Amino acid sequence: MSTQAKSNEKCAQLPGRLVIVGFGSIASAALPVLLQRLDVAPEAVTVLCTPSDDTAIAAENGVRVVREPLTTSNYEAVLQRFVDTGDFLLNLSVGVSSEALVRYCWSRGALYLDTSIEPWGESASDVQRPLSHRSNYALREALLAFRLDKRDGPTALVTQGANPGLISALTKQALSEMAGHHHVDIGRPVSSGDWGRIAQQLGIRAIHVAEQDTQCSAQRKARGEFVNTWSVDALIEEGMQPAELGWGTHERHWPADARRHGFGSDAAIYLTRPGFATRVRSWTPLGGPYHGFLISHGESISIADHLTLRDEGEVVYRPTVHYAYRPCDDALLSIDELAGRGWRAPDRRRILRADIVGGRDELGVLLMGNERGVYWYGSRLSMDDARCLALHNTATTLQVVAGILGGMVWMLEHPRAGIVEPDDIDHRTILDAALPYLGEMAGTYGSWTPLAHRLPLFDEPLDPDDPWQFLNIRVP
Questions:
Q1: Which CATH fold topology does 3-157 show?
Q2: pLDDT of residue 5
Q3: Where, residue-wise, is CATH 3.40.50.720 in the chain?
Q4: Where does the record place the Saccharopine dehydrogenase NADP binding domain (predicted)?
Q5: Which ranges of the chain have pLDDT less than 70?
Q6: Residues β-bridged to residue 325
């Protein structure tokens, strides 16, 4: 059966109502796909959003819109009118606390999914708070603490978009494919320890979420304008968080600006500088070598944590994991201007959608350290293909929507799984639902290393004996 045919079939039934919090670029792109693929009537869907959100797509699909933004003081009162036992809350907002909504849904017996763990907006922008407390690591640890005695209850799947989310499924699929190439019998891995042993056996030392976005519009970025192919607010928020990465056991050069959190799993560290001011070297098969931003993302922490192996309590294996993001050209210019303005965001913001005239989003995982070379596995989705597969989408938004759909399908099959992360769940269910929307899927070996083709123009700190040291990957 063709991919297009599969994308027209219903793949799960919602037993109750669907409430979508926020209606920015991702929610407006997701709504038509969810109505097409999930068995839910438009009259059973409610959008809760801000007065400024463009809700034309919601109106076009016959969905009720309630313009009441959730705040620390009103969220319980507002949600009581719309969310009850058996309903599904899909949080696609910025600046609304994921932990608060998870706790609320748990108390009401409702299902919950988000694409990132969000704090309340005023908390995220409070520069007086310690850097560690403004990190994705701290947000994740708070939810992990809440779930300790709540394994059996309404499912809450946190951080299930493209990355974080889908990328965890792609990591497991990449490890499975590499194991097949090396004739490694992996059986049917179930636990995190199983996947950690596979990664260790394959010699994986570092993992990048390696993404290059080349989508472009005929209208170039203007001065004083921030342009992006998805949420401007969300990109600025995460780019201004401290850079974070899962810290591998093979690392032998501690960064001068690195800090440990001093609590929790200790699977990740943070740098005392924002992700927008931290560059790393990476590679994708079509885009080739590039410098990307080390943006803080939840998957950098969760993948590293789940692949950790211990022997009598001592960590014996963990790869270094982080995002290496090259956004579209206009977003690059926007970030450069943002830095020049002292990190003060401009008032004018534009999200590229229908005006995109070409390009693609090449999003995948880059696994490094194997003797055969680096292995990239992921989605190569062009703008033209995205338009054919789903209305109101760009290549970037559709990759996120595919992750959301996959997560919702898994949750509806497992409605009493408690609070889970993408790394906890079966990647095959996620990919079965997501693949029709991801364009060309490719797994490719390459000879790239961060030391390759480096002209000796400067006296850079390097470790020539081990290319996979973060010292070599980071751009000084």
A1: Rossmann fold (3.40.50)
A2: 39
A3: 3-157
A4: 19-157
A5: 1-7, 124-125
A6: 211, 293
